[in-house]
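input
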Amino acid sequence: MLSKTRSAPADSPAPGMTGDTITRSVSNESPVAATEPDVAPARRSATIDRETRRERSRRRAHRSRLHAYAILTVALVAFLIALAASNTAHVKVNWVFGTSHVSLVWLVLFAAILGWLLGLVATAAFHWRTRAPRRGGGTS
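output
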């Protein structure tokens, strides 16, 4: 036997929340009362999903780090532009099989890109040679 009665509980779980009191009988025929909160989904999410101080602090610290990275990136780009503008003179480069005259900016840029690419290749090679052994399924 199931009957449903609406009433406001004396000690509400949260301000502004009302509950539904449901009286139902169990196997030994004694009625049992249970309380179900009757809260709109927006109000429920506002009370349950409230941001804690730690989460807010973490979010603001992450935002501050992103701002710092953006400022450092702009400063680095400005520095590189100033470096390129001040090093436009041509220099003599001695290769193994000859010489050439190249703008210093292009020489530095070429050396930086070559170093970056070689670093990526070396990292990939070290990762490939030091990876963890495969588990199961393989026949060797």
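quick obs: The chain has a mean pLDDT of 77.
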